[in-house]
């Protein structure tokens, strides 16, 4: 089924992606892989191996003529199964996450890491190493997400950098899997919410199917692009919000780029959203709220989300004024697996070529302090950093 007319749409979508939060509320273990102390030891050894400090246990010399591999001396973008070696058992468990995201419920969580046990650099290596077992393509940089309003920055902050709640959205034009690595949690709030488009579709088909037709129309989009230092251009698109491909419904939605965020207005000559379309976006939020699953993050959690099929949202939060371990801080890395990943629905016209176009040596897998030293206006492709906003 590829972009059928709304008259031919199914009355209901079924399958693993057509879940609601009630399906998991009493059994969060079904989407959680809890790492054991032995797993953590393996990961620690892999970090040391990547840094060139030691052999991993299953690569110890077996005879007097064998030696440990030499110090690797590689940039962090090179962390992969060959440089971050794990046992076959742990590797297979991580690879199952790929199936959960692409062929199952559309999300999965790994729990059991203690970020406070690592340096900032080690956390980046750990994140890059683990994700390399889940997808063979990783984006050009790791984002460091936290409230930056107290930093007295001169530039305008995006919603991502504030403690405000964020509505349901997907990350725009970046790939089919979003991964989040929780470094620390706030004093209050900051819960994550997930809602699959299949269940949103079913909800709207019963309550207000006209909304689905409106979402399948061409909408005017605006996105900011920074091709060079302190250079800004506006990219425009005319494309739908939802579309079918390979018998799967996909969604590409963030209200800012559709003109529905008053704090980030469109260009003066851009067409304004009609009341009908504003109402349709509101109906999506209401449906997502009805079907969503609330996830309470813990430090060390790794969350993987199908970005083409599952919307995510975030509650507002309150950080500790002085305790960094009670301040919300999350690393983010976009992923795509070339063997199991989803093809983007052509009708959605996603521009994906700028997400995975750098080789390992060019990727900016920096710590938050290293990233902060580069002004946003300077974050361009040549530095291995994407400075394009990806959602609200």
Model description:
- With 392 residues, the chain is of the alpha+beta class.
- The protein has a single domain (6-21, 91-383), classed as Clavaminate synthase-like (Double-stranded beta-helix), CATH 3.60.130.10.
- The chain has helices spanning 37-51, 88-103, 120-134, 197-207, 210-215, 275-291, 368-372; strands spanning 32-34, 107-111, 137-138, 143-146, 166-169, 177-184, 188-189, 192-196, 219-225, 233-239, 242-245, 248-251, 293-295, 302-306, 310-314, 317-318, 329-336.
- The radius of gyration is 21 Å and the shape is globular.
- The two termini are 30 Å apart.
- Residues 56-70 have low confidence and may be disordered.
- Keywords: Oxidoreductase.
- Pfam families: TauD.
Known CATH architecture:
4-Layer Sandwich
Q: What overall form do the CA principal axes indicate? A: globular
Question: Rg to the nearest angstrom?
Answer: 21 Å
Note the main sheet. 7 strands, mixed
Gap between N and C termini, in Å? 30 Å
CATH superfamily: Clavaminate synthase-like
Q: Which fold does the CATH topology refer to? A: Double-stranded beta-helix
Instruction: Give the C-level CATH assignment.
Output: Alpha Beta
Number of helices: 7
Keywords: Oxidoreductase
Pfam families: TauD
Organism: Podospora anserina (strain S / ATCC MYA-4624 / DSM 980 / FGSC 10383) (Pleurage anserina)
Protein name: Podospora anserina S mat+ genomic DNA chromosome 2, supercontig 2
């Amino acid at each position: 089924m590829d972009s059928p007319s709304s008259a031919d749409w199914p009355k209901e979508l079924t399958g693993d992606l057509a879940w609601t939060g009630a399906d998991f509320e009493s059994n969060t273990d079904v989407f959680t892989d809890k790492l054991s102390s032995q797993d953590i030891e393996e990961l620690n050894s892999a970090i040391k191996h990547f840094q060139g400090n030691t052999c991993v246990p299953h690569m110890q010399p077996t005879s007097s003529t064998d030696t440990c591999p030499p110090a690797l001396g590689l940039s962090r973008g090179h962390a992969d199964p060959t440089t971050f070696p794990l046992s076959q058992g742990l590797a297979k468990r991580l690879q199952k996450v790929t199936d959960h995201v692409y062929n199952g419920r559309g999300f999965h969580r790994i729990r059991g890491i203690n970020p406070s046990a690592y340096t900032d650099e080690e956390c980046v290596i750990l994140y890059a190493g683990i994700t390399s077992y889940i997808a063979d393509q990783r984006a050009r940089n790791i984002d460091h997400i936290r409230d930056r309003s107290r930093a007295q920055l001169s530039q305008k902050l995006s919603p991502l950098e504030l403690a405000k709640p964020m509505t349901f959205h997907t990350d725009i034009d970046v790939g089919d899997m979003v991964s989040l690595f929780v470094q620390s949690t706030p004093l209050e709030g900051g819960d994550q919410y997930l809602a699959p488009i299949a269940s949103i579709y079913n909800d709207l088909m019963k309550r207000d199917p006209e909304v689905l037709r409106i979402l399948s129309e061409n909408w005017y989009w605006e996105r900011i692009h920074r091709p060079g230092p302190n250079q800004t251009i506006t990219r425009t698109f005319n494309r739908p919000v939802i579309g079918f491909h390979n018998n799967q419904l996909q969604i590409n939605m963030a209200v800012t780029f559709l003109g529905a965020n008053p704090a980030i207005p469109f260009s003066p000559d851009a067409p304004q959203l009609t009341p009908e379309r504003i109402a349709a976006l509101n109906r999506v939020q209401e449906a997502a709220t009805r079907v969503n699953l609330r996830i309470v993050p813990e430090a060390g959690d790794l969350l993987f989300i199908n970005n083409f099929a599952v919307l995510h949202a975030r509650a507002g939060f309150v950080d500790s004024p002085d305790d960094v371990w009670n301040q919300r801080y999350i690393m983010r890395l976009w992923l795509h697996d070339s063997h199991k990943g989803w093809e983007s629905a052509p009708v959605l016209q996603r521009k994906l070529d700028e997400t995975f176009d750098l080789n390992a040596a060019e990727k900016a897998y920096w710590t938050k302090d290293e990233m902060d030293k580069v002004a946003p206006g300077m974050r361009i492709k040549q530095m291995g950093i994407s400075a394009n906003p990806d959602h609200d």
